[in-house]
Amino acid sequence: MPKAAPDLPRKRRFLATLGAGAVITAFFVSLVLTCIHLLRLERQLTPHPGESVVWLASQAQFEAMRTLDVAVRRVAGDPEADEAAVQLRYDLLLSRLVVLLEGRPLLRVRETGLSQAMERQHAAIASLEPALLSLAPGDRDTEAALRAALHPLAGFLREVANRVLLEDQRNAAMLRQARGRAVTEILLYVVGVLASGMLLMLVLFRQRKAQIRAEASLEREREVSRLHRAFVSMVSHQFRTPLAIIDSSAQRMIRRGTAMPPEEVTARAGKIREATRRLTRLMESTLNAARLEAGEINFNPRDCDIAALIREACAHQRELAPSALLEEQLDGLPTRLHCDPTLVEQAVANLVSNAVKYSPPGAPVLLRGATSPGGGAVLEVVDQGVGIPADELGRVFDRFFRARTAEGVTGTGIGLAFARHVARLHGGDVTVVSEEGKGSIFTLRLPPALPPAWNPAGRTEPVAA
């Protein structure tokens, strides 16, 4: 079961991606189907030229009235209303009625329930042909018969046109409603697709972000592990050298015993002491590395004489390296500073020791003190050593890191990291300016006092000194 736990977030991300993809697919398919339905509705709303029953019925009604008009004028003796004019009007009226009884117009008339009445009207008009064609001036009886047939025909055609028009309007209204629903569905599906797409993008973005964080964390862990292994290997090697010196000197003293002259005893004892100091420094670096990693550095600030602390660190360095040339210019420092004296002395000792180790023999190391505008302490440690390559300046304060210019020089890669950590515990910082082959300037800045409600355990960034 424990092995399956790391896979659970991965499974959840996979299911979330799969779900978002399925939703997008469903929305897209629905969108396509709705667009097809909308196109069908648009085709139904498209008018068909020459098949409008309303137009045909109106034309037939108009022809009925014109036929009656020419017949009345024929009976009244109008010379323009001759037999040919009557024949023409009658033929046009009959053709309009025939069109209404064929094809799609007939289907529309049937939908109104007037198709049988339309056939009866057509038969009645067709039966008037002999009387109409034999119509003569003064024939009032035939005129009355024509009026009795054509007036009802005109009213009937008007009724057909009205019913078809109302039916068309209802159908058009229904189609418009259907189209409106289809358009609304399309908008909803588009919004759904967009929302699902955004959800999928969010899932993918979060996955990618988590992957980047995991890769970066893994790379950091690998780098720290590599540096830690190098640190352990280097410390193990450096432990063997002073132990070998102590062992060889002790063996020689045991072998020669009282036969050893006092001068040689003093020299051998000095070597043992120097080797012991090296072991002590290595032990301090190792312990500092452990404290840094565990976050267990004790922090006990109080008012201190910062210049005296620096001078004490320099004196200790002279004992460890008698050939070191340390120049102290500390008059510009504040007289008192609120800090942890033990930690600050160790930080200064690390900076000074670092400068001495990487300086050529006989090259002086300058310690220059000043007071910041806010009343804090500023200490510059200036050396003329090997310097730091520009591409490695950003990593010089990383634990266990050693620049490529440090090859062949003993060290653990802990000193600078510890010094910066101490400075930031106080709300200050350590910075560096360096040029490869010319030397470096490390600057320690400490504020005059800790800010109110200071929390050194959670402090990771410096504040102004």
TrEMBL record:
Q: Which SUPFAM superfamilies match?
A: ATPase domain of HSP90 chaperone/DNA topoisomerase II/histidine kinase, Homodimeric domain of signal transducing histidine kinase
State the source organism's domain of life.
Bacteria
Domain Histidine kinase: residue ranges: 234-450
| InterPro entries hit by this protein | HATPase_C_sf, HATPase_dom, His_kinase_dom, HisK_dim/P_dom, HisK_dim/P_sf, Sensor_HK_Regulatory, Sig_transdc_His_kin-like_C
Coiled coil (UniProt feature): none
Task: Name the enzyme's class.
Answer: transferase
TM ranges are 14-39, 186-205
Q: EC number(s) per UniProt? A: 2.7.13.3
Which Pfam families has this protein been placed in?
Answer: HATPase_c, HisKA
Q: What UniProt keywords are attached to this protein's entry?
A: Kinase, Membrane, Phosphoprotein, Transferase, Transmembrane, Transmembrane helix, Two-component regulatory system
Looking up Gene3D superfamilies in the UniProt record yields: 1.10.287.130, Histidine kinase-like ATPase, C-terminal domain
Indicate what this protein is called per its UniProt record: histidine kinase
Q: What is the lineage of its organism?
A: Bacteria, Pseudomonadati, Pseudomonadota, Alphaproteobacteria, Acetobacterales
